[in-house]
Amino acid sequence: MIASLRDSNNYVESITKDGVMLKEKENGSPHSGWKYLLNGSYPDVGLYVQPVSNGDVIVWHYVNDWGMEDSAWLAAYPNIPVLTGISVTTMPTKTTYNVGETLDLRGLLVTASYQHGAAPQFNRNSSSASFAPDHNAALNTAGTQTITVTFQGQTTTFNVTVNGPVNNAALLAKITEAQNALGAISVGDGNGQYPQSAVDALNSAITSAQAIANKSNRTAAEVANALQSLQNAIDVFDGSVTVISVDKSALTALIATAAAKINGATAGTAPGQYPQSAVNALADAISDAQDIADDARALQSHVNNAVTALQNAIIVFDSAKIPEPTAVTYQIAKADVLNYIRTN
Q1: pLDDT value of residue 95
Q2: Looking at residues 240-252, what average pLDDT do you find?
Q3: What kind and span of H or E run contains 207?
Q4: Does residue 69 have a pLDDT over 60?
Q5: Which of 99, 123, 243, 279 is least enclosed by beta carbons within 10 angstroms?
Q6: H and E: helices and strands count for the chain
């Protein structure tokens, strides 16, 4: 069969078969000519702009009056395939989404059913089909989303599930825990301090976790992974504290000795007593030593210096005790009194 085209290849003016050509307007009417059926229906556009797909059934026939004979012609040829409906044969590979993801119609197969004809299948690439929403459309509303397929005037639908954002309360709590940990430490290389590199690493982990917590389309897997990653970062941070072995036992014992001296001393000016200034000085020395004992960052050199300082303070305190009067002192004092009486 040979067709002769005109009007930019959009209109068939004649068809030749077995050497016989039949042209438009040759059958006694100015309205006679060729028409075509696509899947049992008359398209409303010319052949050049009419999209077709594999499995489409196209029938060309001649009419004496193109405006009057469609129904009569169809009745005369009852076995021409007529599209009666479409249905989803195979669902898309992906049918569950999170809010913000895009629709993926890959894997979808739709069957076109014809009366007196085959049952071809088509997918998202069919030029004769449309999908609403279409492939790659954003799914921004949680719930059941209905997808409508339209083909040659027939429609069918199927549903996909769109999940809302996953709860992030546990992740937010862990982020707060990490932030509080950073706020309670001192940065440095001293005993009990944390290196700057450890602080930077934990800050980076917090930033990554916060990004997942802020995502509107976060998944359960993303939240779980972020939570575990942040906990791992906290564990590493806790283990990065600088710990230097320091022996404070001598300092602790000496503080106890000094405290016992103060507790057993009486401040005053009488023999056996201690000037108040001496008591205050030893108390200050004990306080300074206790600060070093309580300081987790104190080095051994700090502890040793504190021991020396407190030992010196104890020596000074002991030497400040007001002495008891001796026998010689008593005799001198008695002689001075008698001499005073005689001269007066």
Answers
A1: 96
A2: 90
A3: helix 196-214
A4: no
A5: 243
A6: 8, 12
